[in-house]
Amino acid sequence: MSHATIPDREFITLFEELGPKKLSERLDHNVRTIYRRRERVEQRNNITIKAPNEEKGFPKINVNHPARVNIAIENGTILVGSDSHYWPDLISTSHRAFVKLCKTLKPKCVVKNGDELDGSTISRFPPIGWESLPTLEEEVVTVKKRLKEIEKAAPDDASLVWPLGNHDLRFESRLSKVAPEFAKIHGMHLKDHFPNWLPCWSAWVNDDLIIKHRFKGGQHSAYNNSLFSGKSICTGHYHRLLARPVADYNKKLRWGIECGTLADPNGPQFRDYSEDNPKDHHQGFAVLTFEDGNLLPPELVYVLEENKVSFRGKILEV
Questions:
Q1: Looking at the structure, do residues 18 and 90 belong to the same domain, yes or no?
Q2: What are the residues facing 69 on neighbouring strands?
């Protein structure tokens, strides 16, 4: 039986009685499909639907802002990986570590914080020399493969969220310029190709932490991001991996976090345009843990060398 045939009223009753996992089994659907249906039903009816086990810390997602996803997590972990720039036939150490920790940490939410796609052939910059670049189709197929690996590793009830990055926007920017009449056809938006991931500009966790691709720029962007937002904030874009504490008269410690890159900084995505200059890029990602709704000090996973990362004072092989 398809969940699409169930009226909203029946869906609400079953969700509150069975919870998302048992309801997904009854309807023979992925549990994430059930969560997405709940979001739509809540928006249409302006209500909140609670599962029996929600008080145990399961993530609660609402979309009440066209560009923003709101996430409520009482106890649990969010994995944030950014700037993957996935390239055909290349799987980075950081990506393998991300998949491994999705299995072992069992996060409540997984965030891919922009620039999944590199979009090398649709860049606004002219090509350098005569290099051979992957086609857009090859890149999209590669992103699908890598995201599918993460989906399989993450718990069935983990929320999958995807704040868009500037490289991701190349896909639709090119189409909007050369074929605007195709705008509403399925497949013309990048999000159509990754249906299990919830796209947004920003994800707000417990209204205390913002996760988005970029905000302020410059060498001190982590500090300025938190200073100007007034909240803890986790960004990508600059490929740096660090956590900067920020305090003021409010007496509540907040964090400016930059979550690195899941790509190899010396990979072909960056080889030519960097002109062999030193790159302040750090391969790794962020692990954000909540206890009683509060963000604990961020943990960072750094790639030490091929197949080895550091995490919680230990070296992990991936």
A1: no
A2: 203
Q: What is the CATH number of the domain that holds 109?
A: 3.60.21.10
Q: For residue 267, give the DSSP letter.
A: S
Percent of the chain at pLDDT > 90 equals 52
What is the per-residue pLDDT for 3? 43
More confident site: 42 or 82: 82
* Calpha distance 204→144 (Å, rounded): 25
| Distance in angstroms (rounded) separating the CA atoms of residues 87 and 116 | 10
**Considering its fold, how many domains does the chain have in total?**
2
- 18/164 same-domain check: no
CB 252 within 8 A of CB 226: no
Pair 43, 63: CB distance under 8 Å = yes
Phi-psi region of 11 (alpha: psi -120 to 50; beta: other; left: phi over 0): alpha
What's residue 31's pLDDT?
77
Of 208, 163, 252, 197, which is closest to residue 73 (Cα–Cα)?
A: 208
Residues 45 and 175 occupy one common structural domain = no
- Give yes or no: residues 162 and 26 share one domain: no
- Per the CB < 8 A criterion, the answer to whether 159 and 211 are in contact is no
Residue 75: which of 59, 63, 62, 61 has the closest Cα?
A: 59
CA separation for the pair 83, 69 (Å, rounded): 20
Q: Do 285 and 170 have their domain in common?
A: yes
Look at the block and give the residue holding tokens 């960004």.
235
- The residue type found at 121 is T
Q: What is the CA radius of gyration of the chain?
A: 20
The per-residue b/e assignment along 78-103, b for 16 or more CB within 10 angstroms, e otherwise, is bbbbbbbbbbeebebbbbbbbbbbbe
Residue 207 pLDDT exceeds 60: yes
